């Protein structure tokens, strides 16, 4: 324990310690002198630009990107303008702010992504200073120009520039300034001589920090905390004022005895901090000042850079990297000399147990007597999370494991989760990975963001192992990593398409949540079309294959895939695309090679594009369908000449198709139309529209062979209704209308018109082909029993009973049934009898009984 506390430094009631994170892997010849350095928080990458304002075209500065451990990631000569500031976004993208107001954005590997400008007026006035900050809206950029005006962009991903009001009396750049984010508003706090101003969107307001000594002098340096809640001001007299960033409350004021302006000033504050402090750095000195009057001083040998973190400050030099932080209270309780905290006693008990000493039992008894064994285990587990040294972690976790063996109702969840999290943290802290995260940073960042950062840095095997170890669901873990890996794999130019496709298939397989179409789209964006097609072969969903194939101009392959899918909507989508992209001849030839697509397109044309349908049939020499098309088109024509012309075309096509029956039926239709026209001219009968009307009722009649009987019947009915019997007779003879059909039509027409004499004459004209029961039934439908009885005697014996029953003649029906000795007919008559028909019932019953004896 004495060794662990050897590097602890007291500050008020708290202790501060420096923990070495890395011996830097880089080899910087001149250290960090004359360099612009930016490091991302949460153990992020480091960007370094030597002599950023060098303007000589023959000797360009070099922009270098390293991991937090100093492992080189990217390096390239800076060919653009002089750089004022570097910074990192929350997604580890590098921002390079130039003198002319241009902001260039690069990814972690030095690839240029995009750029934007901080305003046209900045080109003339130049940027004097710039800062990159983080707000609730995202990553922002603030600049001050040669005209002493501030311009803000609170979110570079949704760029909206805001030019702040002028500051009274400001000439050039201010002595110092910071960006504050309060209540979702972004403001600038600046110092101009002895005055402090807060500038927002609409106003510039002079402010005075509460409790600042009158002899403090002018503010020459200021710093805002990691959370933007606290503010530190350093004056030219060496006074350090700390308070809330809204300037409503003072925390402390310390005289540092240093009148020179520090090179950097950063807050060092962790969550639940006992002693928040500010770290100030001069060329050869690092000073930690808290809310008390005490300070901690560390000598510096090389130039350093301070990076504020959630729970401390990273100190980066040319040789190593350290973490300065307040020692967590639980670690103080366990490791302080002569500590009697439960965690300290449990740790000592475990050490004695490993020595096989009976003192272990004494320490355990002391903890149990205080009923603090559960608390002791929790303290050891919590302290292990705050320790960076793996040996210290193991000692604490073994002590916790030893203590929980004596507890019966202790939940192991915290112990298990801390073990897992420490294993993950230790793996990413390795120098080869270079993510020096503390446990507090890890909890704030979340596992998902850590996986994203590993994937972004292309540590795919480690990311997959962590996902599996933490049992993250595939679609959030392994599958997401594999998808990103595959997207990078397709960009490797030194491998063949076949090799990459095979590697992706073997690695990705059927992993849930991974879309081969997304990977193929990435390959296509990289100009590897053939690789994209090979990858699409592994995609199980045709709906994902087809859009990309169309985008790649592989329309015929897209059509084949759509047909194979069996999805008609998808086929229609491809066909519609092909129709717009190809000339008509090529389009039709493509469809001929895909019968399913051709059939679907024909169905579409029947409803939407009739003329295209005609062209299709002509292209295929499909005379039968072309004839059907002409027939259907004829139904839509109102002029007789046009209809006859189309029907004649149909006859010609039917003859070519050797369909004699359809050709004959179509010719009959043409004769019928001419017959109707003739009668219209002579009698004004209005028959010509009947063919069209009846065909419209039968919208599925695509051939005249189905519509013709309806046309004859409608015309015949119209002639009979108009009393044009001679013309109806002529139609009957000329068109060889079947006798039964003609007799039925005339029978119903005469009965409906109540021309009973004509009906009787008609019945006697010759033997009825439809029998005479029909006459009886039609007369009864017209409510004329008298006329109906005239035809009962003419009915055949088999239909006599029905005829008598139709006219309600029960006695006649009974006589006919008894005469025929038909059991079923006698039963039918009985069913129609009522109680008043006793004589008929008796006769029928006797007849049935007699028939039964025989």
Can you tell me about this structure?
Plays a role in vesicle-mediated protein trafficking to lysosomal compartments including the endocytic membrane transport and autophagic pathways. Believed to act as a core component of the putative HOPS and CORVET endosomal tethering complexes. Its main location: membrane. One of its GO terms (molecular function) is actin binding. Residues 5-416 form the Vps16 N-terminal domain. The structure is a single chain. The chain is of the alpha+beta class and 854 residues long. The strands form seven sheets. It has a five-stranded antiparallel β-sheet, with no helix packed on it. A four-stranded antiparallel β-sheet has the order 3-4-5-6, with no helix packed on it. Helix 25 (704-721) packs parallel to helix 27 (739-752). Residues 691-708 have low confidence and may be disordered.
Tags for this model:
34 helices, 4-stranded antiparallel beta sheet, single chain, 854 residues, alpha+beta
């Amino acid at each position: 324990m004495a060794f662990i506390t050897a590097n602890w430094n007291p500050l008020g009631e708290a202790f501060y310690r420096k923990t070495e994170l890395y011996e830097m892997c880089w080899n910087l010849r001149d250290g960090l002198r004359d360099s612009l350095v930016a490091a991302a928080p949460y153990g992020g990458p480091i960007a370094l630009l030597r002599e950023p304002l060098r303007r000589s075209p023959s000797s360009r500065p070099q922009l270098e990107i390293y991991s937090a451990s100093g492992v080189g990631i990217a390096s390239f000569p800076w060919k653009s303008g002089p750089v004022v500031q570097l910074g990192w976004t929350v997604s580890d993208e590098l921002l390079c702010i130039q003198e002319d107001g241009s902001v260039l954005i690069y990814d972690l590997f030095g690839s240029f992504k995009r750029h934007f400008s901080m305003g046209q007026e900045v080109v003339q006035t130049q940027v004097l200073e710039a800062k990159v900050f983080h707000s609730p809206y995202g990553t922002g950029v603030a600049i001050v120009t040669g005209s002493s005006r501030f311009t803000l962009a609170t979110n570079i991903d949704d760029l909206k520039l805001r030019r702040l009001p002028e500051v009274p009396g400001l000439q050039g750049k201010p002595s110092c300034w910071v960006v504050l984010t309060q209540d979702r508003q972004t403001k600038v706090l600046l110092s101009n001589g002895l005055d402090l101003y807060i500038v927002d969107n609409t106003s510039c307001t002079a402010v005075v920090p509460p409790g600042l000594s009158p002899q403090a002098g002018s503010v020459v340096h200021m710093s805002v905390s990691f959370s933007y809640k606290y503010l530190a001001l350093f004056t030219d007299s060496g006074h350090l004022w700390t308070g809330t960033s809204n300037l409503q409350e003072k925390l402390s004021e310390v005289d540092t005895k240093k009148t020179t302006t520090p090179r950097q000033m950063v807050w060092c504050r962790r969550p639940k901090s006992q002693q928040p402090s500010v770290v100030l750095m001069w060329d050869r000195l690092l000073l930690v000042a808290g809310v008390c009057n005490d300070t901690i001083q560390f000598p510096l040998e090389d130039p350093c850079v301070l990076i504020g973190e959630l729970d401390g400050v990273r100190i980066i030099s040319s040789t190593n990297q350290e973490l300065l932080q307040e020692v967590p209270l639980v670690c103080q309780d366990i490791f302080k000399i002569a500590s009697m905290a439960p965690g300290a006693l449990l740790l000592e008990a475990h050490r004695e147990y490993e020595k096989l000493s009976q003192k272990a039992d004494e320490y355990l008894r002391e903890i149990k007597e205080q009923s603090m064994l559960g608390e002791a285990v929790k303290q050891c587990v919590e302290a292990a999370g705050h320790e960076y040294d793996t040996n210290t972690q193991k000692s604490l976790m073994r002590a916790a494991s030893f203590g929980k063996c004596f507890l019966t109702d202790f939940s192991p969840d915290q112990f298990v989760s801390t073990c897992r999290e420490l294993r993950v943290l230790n793996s990413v802290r390795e120098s080869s990975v270079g993510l020096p995260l503390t446990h507090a940073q890890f909890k704030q960042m979340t596992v998902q963001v850590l996986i994203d950062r590993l994937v972004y840095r292309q540590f795919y095997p480690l990311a997959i192992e962590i996902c599996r170890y933490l049992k993250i669901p595939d679609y959030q873990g392994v599958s997401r990593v594999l998808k990103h890996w595959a997207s990078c794999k397709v960009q490797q130019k030194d491998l063949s398409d076949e090799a990459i496709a095979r590697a992706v298939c073997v690695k990705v397989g059927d992993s849930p949540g991974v879309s081969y179409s997304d990977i193929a789209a990435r390959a296509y964006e990289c100009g590897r079309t053939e690789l994209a097609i090979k990858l699409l072969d592994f995609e199980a969903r045709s709906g994902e294959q087809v859009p990309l194939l169309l985008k790649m101009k592989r329309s015929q392959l897209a059509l084949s895939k759509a047909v194979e899918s069996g999805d008609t909507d998808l086929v229609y989508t491809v066909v519609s695309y092909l129709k717009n992209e190809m000339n008509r001849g090529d389009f039709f030839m493509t469809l001929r090679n895909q019968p399913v697509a051709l059939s679907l397109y024909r169905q579409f044309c029947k409803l939407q594009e009739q003329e295209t349908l005609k062209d299709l049939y002509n292209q295929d020499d499909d005379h039968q369908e072309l004839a059907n098309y002409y027939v259907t088109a004829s139904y839509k024509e109102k002029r007789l000449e046009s209809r006859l012309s189309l029907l004649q075309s149909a006859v010609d096509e039917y003859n070519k198709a050797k369909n004699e029956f359809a050709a004959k039926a179509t010719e009959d239709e043409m004769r019928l139309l001419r017959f109707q026209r003739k009668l219209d001219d002579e009698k004004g009968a209005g028959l010509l529209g009947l063919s069209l009307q009846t065909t419209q009722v039968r919208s599925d009649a695509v051939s005249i062979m189905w519509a013709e009987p309806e046309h004859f019947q409608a015309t015949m009915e119209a002639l009979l209704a108009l009393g044009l019997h001679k013309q109806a007779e002529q139609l009957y003879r000329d068109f060889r209308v079947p006798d039964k059909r003609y007799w039925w039509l005339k029978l119903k027409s005469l009965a409906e018109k109540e021309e009973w004499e004509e009906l009787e004459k008609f019945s006697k004209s010759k033997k009825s082909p439809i029998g005479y029961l029909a006459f009886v039934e039609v007369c009864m439908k017209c409510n004329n029993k008298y006329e109906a009885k005239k035809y009962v005697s003419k009915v055949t014996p088999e239909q006599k009973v029905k005829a008598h029953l139709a006219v309600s003649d029960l006695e006649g029906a009974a006589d006919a049934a008894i005469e025929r000795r038909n059991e079923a007919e006698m039963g039918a008559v009985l069913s129609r009898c009522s109680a008043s028909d006793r004589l008929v019932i008796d006769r029928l019953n006797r007849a049935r009984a007699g028939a039964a004896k025989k």
